[in-house]
Design goal:
Blueprint (H helix, E strand, L loop, with lengths): L1 H29 L1 H6 L4 E2 L6 E2 L4 H25 L5 H4 L3 E2 L4 E3 L5 H17 L1 H6 L6 H15 L23 E6 L2 E7 L5 E3 L4
Antiparallel strand pairs: 1-2, 3-4, 5-6, 6-7
Helix pairs in contact: 1-3, 1-5, 1-7, 3-7
């Protein structure tokens, strides 16, 4: 029972990462600035090659994650029975035989579609844990999620508490405190890098 519980928690934790990961990957793919900064794949077919308007790798990998979730979700739906979420049946980019990835959608729509699938899969975790006919499919899905989290880490922005006053040198409101072993040691402007030491009391 304990092993099943820990596997279920492990499985659910990884599933909960998928919507945020897909959102991040699609945002990376659609970022025009990022596409221009990289040696983007070029399209040939005319006399000159042209850059693609998006980054191919995150888009392809997002499609891979979504298609894998769809295929896995369909297997689970066959075993469990009952109603499955609409994205498993309709909302996908279809290939000849099986799903190929996300439908034409924005990053936020990709988040919503995957959230619907993930919520349903989490509700089916108990059945998934006890169904031996799924073989390694759940673990393969977890491995893919971990691989994508490693390839496209979601960097959280670092919080900086800025002072409300503008910098006397550059005029920007990016002055933050500098802390030392004895408390406040001074301040620094993140824009122009000017520093001020704390005056002794």
């Amino acid at each position: 029972m304990q092993a099943e519980r820990s596997w279920s928690e492990h499985f659910e934790w990884h599933l909960r990462q998928v919507p945020f990961q897909l959102l991040h990957m699609r945002e990376l793919a659609e970022s025009a600035v990022a596409a221009q900064d990289t040696a983007a794949v070029k399209v040939s077919g005319g006399s000159e090659q042209a850059r693609l308007p998006y980054r191919v790798d995150p888009a392809d990998d997002a499609d891979l994650v979504y298609a894998t979730m769809i295929i896995f979700g369909r297997e689970v739906a066959e075993k469990v029975g009952g109603a499955s979420p609409r994205p498993l049946r309709e909302r996908m980019w279809r290939g000849r035989d099986e799903p190929q990835g996300l439908p034409l959608c924005t990053p936020s729509e990709a988040f919503e579609l995957s959230t619907e699938i993930v919520t349903w899969l989490i509700a089916c975790t108990h059945q998934i844990a006890h169904d031996g006919t799924l073989n390694d499919a759940p673990d393969d899905l977890i491995d893919l999620i971990r691989q994508m989290r490693g390839r496209y880490p979601r960097a959280e922005p670092k919080f900086k508490a800025y002072r409300p006053r503008p910098c006397p040198t550059c005029g920007e409101r990016t002055i933050r405190p500098l802390w030392g072993p004895d408390g406040l040691a001074g301040a620094i402007c993140d824009t122009c890098q000017r520093t001020w030491e704390k005056k002794p009391a």
